[in-house]
Amino acid sequence: MSGANTNLPTVKERANEALKDDFLRKAVRFTTERLRHGKKTASELLGNWEEWRERGRQIRLHTIAHLDYYLNLFADNARANGVHVHFAETATDAVRIALSIAKNHEARTVVKSKSMVTEELHLNQELKKIGVEAIEADLGEYIIQLAGEMPSHIIIPAIHKNRFQIAELLSEVAGEKLSADTKILAGFVRKKLREKFLEADIGMTGCNFAIAETGSMVLFENEGNARMVSTLPRVQITLMGMERIIPSWADLEVMATLLPRSATGQKLTVYMSGITGPRRKEDGDGPEEMHIIIVDNGRSLQLGDPEFQELLNCIRCGACLNACPVYRHIGGHAYGGPYSGPIGAVLTPALKKNVAEWDDIANASSLCGACYEACPVKIPLHEMLVYLRRRKVEAGHGQAAEGMAMKGFGAVMGNARRYRLALKLGRIGQKLVVRDGGIRAKIGPLKGWNKYRIAPSIAKETFQERWRTLEQEIRVEPNETSRSAEARLKQVLQERSSKGGHLHG
Amino acid sequence: MKVSMFVTCLSDAVYPRVAEAMVRVLARQGVKLELPPTQTCCGQPAFNSGYWDAARASARTLLEAFEDSDFVISPSGSCTHMIHNYTKLFEHDPVWLPKARQLQQKSYEFSQFLVNVLDVQDIGAVFPHKVTYHPSCHGSRLLGAKNEPLILMEHVKGLELIPLPFAEDCCGFGGTFAVKMADISGAMVTEKVEHVKETAAEVLVGLDMACLMNISGRLRHQGEQIRVMHLAELLEEGVKRA
Question: Would the pLDDT of A238 be above 60?
Fold first, then answer.
């Protein structure tokens, strides 16, 4: 019921668990389809989507290329606003800083709005160890916290659960049977959380964007919980990945155009809060004390790496998850970390500093490119997945059997005579297993393939063998248009050379 | 003028009928293809799995085979797109990088060559059947062959094109993905086949035999009779019928 068993060691094993879970697959399909459709409609209504994407990409490329400058600018401005700015190089550092703030204030409860960085740091568990209760105030996060799970989607943490499963969880908290009516369930959580907002000593938030020019942080949300978290408690702690920076409020316009549309198909989220420092004398509300912890935790390793630097451009919209046909079938828990889907498949190894030593997470993709097409800042995730695979092989961590097979591939495909010989041998070898032109036996590399399919066989006559007779046959056919075709080809050839090597396609 | 055929290993070894249909369709348009015998495979299985040395060995056979060609036409969007990756494979190789750039520039997928280069939309085919079309990911998404096949099918008399639900979702092939992650791939192709069946089409058509091998393999496993064809085959059969 709770999705894939995240204790299994590989993506493949966890995915196989998920594939057996019809509740999960149905729930994931239902919501990702809704989000995909929403994104499509919202981007079409806006118009010029490709130009917006390119603009977004340029802003992110520029910011990350000058990240040192913008981070310093942000930190200086935030400090001038009265914010305590902390830099955490590792997860351990970030946790230590957060815990020491909690200890200083003798905090007993922390109320949180949605933050993927705190998931990455397992901060709730660390707070619990020192006796501080952390309460998730985002509805989806609240649900998975009750279930004791990780989020299975960047934007929709409980995407893998249907309303009946959620009603069961919430009924336990309520001590009575709640009906699986979404309005009733949301109403119950709302009431429950109100108490927590008022009780909490610390409000903890994530950060969608940090604006360098004013040292402000911006939160996008739909439930109003982030606004409660950032106004009611006396102390606010914001955790942000070091790459969340954008230079200016003008750049935010582009991001505010791209993020909600890509994430949920909304023109704008219900709430968008810009927070510049703690409460001032003239303010009606807000925290008395505000901390921002800027977390590296493996991010800076991507800087200067031409194959992975663009990973830092990600704005965490989740569009790649919704577009991914693999995610659609296995959900998020199968990826084994807080970040799932195509972005998770690349980010997880990258943040763990092991672009060459990952388990099998980068193999969980057919490289279809749907993630790249969906990405509002055009991160070539499908290419990065190939780079991950190559780095692993080059570092000598590849699978021995596959290495042998690929050596054989290179030897055979590197020479046409060997290639033709291999086909001849294959044709002899397959005689034992071919029936009605197909192979059904679940043997060797066809084991998995033939569980679901019938494999085709090598043709009696390959095309290259057929070619000599085919050439003769075609010569006999009338060739009336050849002169005009030739003229057309010449024209294209000329255009090509005049373009000076410009690439088509 | 040298117009060459990049037959692709899959069409050469398993689907020679597709390569033949492409040759015949283009011959009717006055294009005489030639077949350099030293070509093997684009190298994609090795490239995608991270074995770039093996991919380079394979890629060099194409770079050499087509060195003198003006145009290189292939019945696969995915294999054509793989040629676009050669600049990455030979990024630090001053000898092979220029050859890689040249080959990329002159390589075309079949439908793009027909529509964009030859400027042909109607080849005079008749095919009175219900057809659904699976746009393969690499050809449509990465190479950009989105409209070309639709234009060609629009002009086939009698052809009734039925939209495939979730057409743009990957069929689950992904090369070695189908072997390494067999059950995820199996789930994906099972869903694809469900959508194909929903259309009640008589024929499933596409531009990439790898994807079609995957989908037809699943259809046959389920005992389904839906015919699976490459667009070149459909056009060739349609012209003969006309």
Answer: yes
Q: What's the pLDDT tens digit per position in A151-188?
A: 999 999 999 999 999 999 999 999 999 999 999 999 99
CA B58 – CA B60 distance, rounded (Å)? 5
pLDDT above 90 for B110: yes
The CATH code of the domain that includes A110 is 3.40.50.10420
Closest chain B residue by Cα to residue A495? B117
- The alpha carbon of residue B14 is apart from the nearest alpha carbon of chain A, in Å, by 5
Residue A493 lies in a domain: no
Q: Taking CB atoms and an 8 Å cut-off, how many pairs form between chains A and B?
A: 260
- Positive or negative, the CA dihedral A226, A227, A231, A233 is negative
Q: Do B188 and A466 touch (CB under 8 A)?
A: no
ipTM of the complex: 0.97
pLDDT tens readout for residues A338-388? 999 999 999 999 998 888 999 999 999 999 999 999 999 999 999 999 999
Closest-CA distance of chain B to residue A313, Å: 21
Are B137 and A458 a contacting pair at CB < 8 A?
A: no
Per the CB < 8 Å rule, is B23 touching A470? yes
Instruction: Assess A472–B contact: CB distance below 8 Å, yes or no.
Output: no
Residue written as token pair 């033709």 = A420
Examine the pLDDT at B161 and tell me if it is beyond 70: yes
At residue A188, what is the residue type?
A: F
Contacts of A442 in chain B (CB under 8 A): none
Residue A433 forms part of a structural domain: yes
Q: Tell which residue, B58, B173, B179, has the closest CA to residue A407.
A: B58
Reduce the DSSP state of residue A4 to 3 states and report it. coil
What pLDDT, on a 0 to 100 scale, did the predictor assign at position A1?
39
In the sheet with B227-230, reading across from the earlier edge strand, the strands are B160-161, B130-133, B203-206, B227-230
For residue A452, the enclosing domain spans 424-482
- Quick one: fold of B130-241? Rossmann fold (3.40.50)
E strands, B30-188, are 71-74, 107-109, 130-133, 160-161
pLDDT for residue B208 is more than 90 = yes
Residue where a domain stops, chosen among A271, A301, A331: A301
Does the distance separating the beta carbons of B169 and A415 come in below 8 Å?
A: no
Q: What is the mean pLDDT of residues A443-462?
A: 93
User: A449 and B178 in contact by Cβ < 8 A?
Assistant: yes
Burial class (CB in 10 A: 0-12, 13-18, 19+), A312: buried
Q: Is residue A391 part of a domain?
A: no
Provide, as residue numbers in chain A, all residues whose Cβ is less than 8 Å from the Cβ of B89.
none
Tell if the CB–CB gap between B30 and A402 is shorter than 8 Å: no
| pLDDT, tens digit, 9 for 90 and up, residues B191-203 | 999 999 999 999 9
Helix A463-476 / helix B16-28 crossing angle, nearest 10 deg: 20
In-domain check, residue A500: no
Closest partner CB to A470 (pick from B20, B50, B178): B20
Report the relative pairing of strands A209-211 and A245-246 from DSSP bridges: parallel
What chain B residue is nearest to A18 in terms of C-alpha separation?
B184
| E strands in B134-190 | 160-161
Query: Using a CB-CB distance cutoff of 8 angstroms, which residues of chain A are in contact with residue B43?
Result: 413
User: A116 at the B interface (CB within 8 A)?
Assistant: no
Contact B141, A368 (CB under 8 A): yes
A75-110 pLDDT tens trace: 999 999 999 999 999 999 999 999 999 999 999 999
Establish if A482 touches chain B: CB-CB under 8 angstroms.
yes
> CB distance from A451 to chain B under 8 Å?
yes
The domains of chain B are located at: 3-117, 130-241
